[in-house]
Design a protein that fits this description.
Blueprint lengths: L4 H20 L1 H20 L4 H13 L9 H4 L7 H7 L2 H9 L6 H9 L20 H16 L10 H10 L6 H13 L4
Helix pairs in contact: 1-2, 1-3, 2-3, 2-8, 3-7, 6-7, 7-8, 8-9, 9-10
The structure holds fe (ii) ion.
């Protein structure tokens, strides 16, 4: 498989963003790095082309770039957020999208940044999109983002096991694309390695 110069350029941008995120928050950078690798692997698992899978990985790897624009104390607050703090955190998808706008990246990548907190039942943000109105790549990142947040260790949160995380996703299944959640569950049962 040959890599086009556009793909190479995107990979460089992604690595550059990864370096900035690591300087700001190593745990968040690790989360993004895992999503980069795992969403690309998932793309291949569900039969996307190699190009689409690597674009998906890049979207997964930079989806939270907008957190650079959010106050660090609010972002990492261990206790319950006030409604004003939650309002600020909810700005990060749009902030990231605007940050990337001058680069004119492939929209499938920027969809991951703008729409990764949209819920399948329409209850998410920033636009309250529902069902297949949410771009495919963003629906995929939505699932991996939740799973990784549940399983990762943070100073104030001990990571749960893969099986526990799958049970939590199943309980909240209204938030996720059902067909993608099925594929995700079967992939994780084959290799719960993340
Ligand atoms: Fe996010």
């Amino acid at each position: 498989m040959s890599t086009t110069s556009a793909e190479l350029q995107l990979e460089k941008i992604s690595r550059f963003i990864g370096g900035i995120m690591r300087g700001r928050d190593p745990d968040l950078a690790d989360h993004l790095q895992r999503l980069d690798a795992k969403t690309a692997e998932f793309g291949r698992y569900i039969g996307l082309s190699e190009t689409e899978s690597s674009l998906l990985g890049i979207g997964g790897g930079i989806h939270d770039i907008g957190k650079l624009c959010i106050n660090e104390q609010v972002l990492n607050k261990p206790s319950r957020l006030t409604s004003a703090e939650f309002f600020f955190i909810k700005q990060h998808p749009m902030a990231g999208y605007q940050l990337l706008a001058p680069l004119e990246l492939d929209t499938r990548v920027t969809d991951c940044v703008l729409h990764h907190h949209e819920n399948f039942d329409g209850s998410g943000y920033p636009h309250g999109l529902a069902g297949e109105n949410i771009p495919l790549f963003a629906r995929i990142v939505r699932i991996w983002d939740s799973y990784d947040a549940i399983t990762m260790n943070r100073p104030y949160h001990k990571g749960r096991s893969s099986e526990e995380a799958l049970a939590i996703l199943e309980k909240d299944k209204a938030l996720y694309d059902p067909a993608l959640l099925d594929s995700f569950t079967s992939m994780m049962r084959l290799s719960p390695s993340i």
